[in-house]
């Protein structure tokens, strides 16, 4: 009898004996013990453990069936695919799936070594039998992992797309002021909606393969300014990101001031006022949108716009002709074509924004206090009035000029 016949006969005997119920149970116990010892997160999940047992059993039976044939033909049982999908649905990383099969690899070869030793104890077993079993098992494991990784990623993408769609729909419902279950919404979003909410819009003037990650990095950097704040982000287009930071109490002025100092390459930021709960989530976002719209329409705008600083200007833009008339009336004399007047306008605007405090204005502009006083006096001379006479009108008019330039006649 030739070696090929001996190998075929022995493999047939091995397959027959290994397919007995008690042998299958022993195989599953040996292999799954190795897997669960390596992956405590899987071992702690009763449903996953059951999925694992089913996967191991049917993978083994499929392998034994193939071992009885001359040709190799991979067949991945549905139970194995179910395990890969279960791991993906639980948000586990693909490395968990790889660890399952790495541990299974060790368990399978430990079992095969023991079984071959036992069955060949009284036989003069050709080395070709050993090589055939090891080679087929190794190939089966490798191809199974390849197929199941693809299954894992298909499921992960489907889950992520579904999860993202559900989250986006829920955010839209909150922004539309629809009634929601606050606790359920917080769980779905992974964001504590009952806390104080500060909304951001982060956007870029450029779009490339780095844009999404750049916007996310900027949002995370901004969120770190809030001590212990929880960040929620949502891409709303190819180059803009909606963001909310939840905090136990309203952010103090120092936090908001620190935000204004942040600068990002090719990224601009608009922020709304903090507010409590779902209403704060909605209103702060609407305010951030108003600030963003102002910045994007402006001829010149800073990279960070706080709605609190431009609230009156945002509202006044609703009646643009009246606003322009007011600007010309209030600050026309210091808006003529003279480059020496630009620092005068900047100083007056900063002075009014800082509650007419000379020292704070000088610190903000990095100039000497006497320089501030000289520019303020120059403005009062040209305007023909005291700055304290109509501070709100002056500040609004100068804000408009700072963003859009002097209105055309």
From TrEMBL:
<feature type="domain" description="CdaR GGDEF-like">
    <location>
        <begin position="179"/>
        <end position="294"/>
    </location>
</feature>
<protein>
    <submittedName>
        <fullName>PucR family transcriptional regulator</fullName>
    </submittedName>
</protein>
<feature type="domain" description="PucR C-terminal helix-turn-helix">
    <location>
        <begin position="345"/>
        <end position="399"/>
    </location>
</feature>
<comment type="similarity">
    <text>Belongs to the CdaR family.</text>
</comment>
<dbReference type="InterPro" id="IPR025736">
    <property type="entry name" value="PucR_C-HTH_dom"/>
</dbReference>
<dbReference type="Pfam" id="PF13556">
    <property type="entry name" value="HTH_30"/>
</dbReference>
<dbReference type="InterPro" id="IPR051448">
    <property type="entry name" value="CdaR-like_regulators"/>
</dbReference>
<dbReference type="InterPro" id="IPR042070">
    <property type="entry name" value="PucR_C-HTH_sf"/>
</dbReference>
<feature type="domain" description="RsbT co-antagonist protein RsbRD N-terminal">
    <location>
        <begin position="28"/>
        <end position="167"/>
    </location>
</feature>
<dbReference type="Pfam" id="PF14361">
    <property type="entry name" value="RsbRD_N"/>
</dbReference>
<dbReference type="InterPro" id="IPR041522">
    <property type="entry name" value="CdaR_GGDEF"/>
</dbReference>
<dbReference type="InterPro" id="IPR025751">
    <property type="entry name" value="RsbRD_N_dom"/>
</dbReference>
<dbReference type="Pfam" id="PF17853">
    <property type="entry name" value="GGDEF_2"/>
</dbReference>
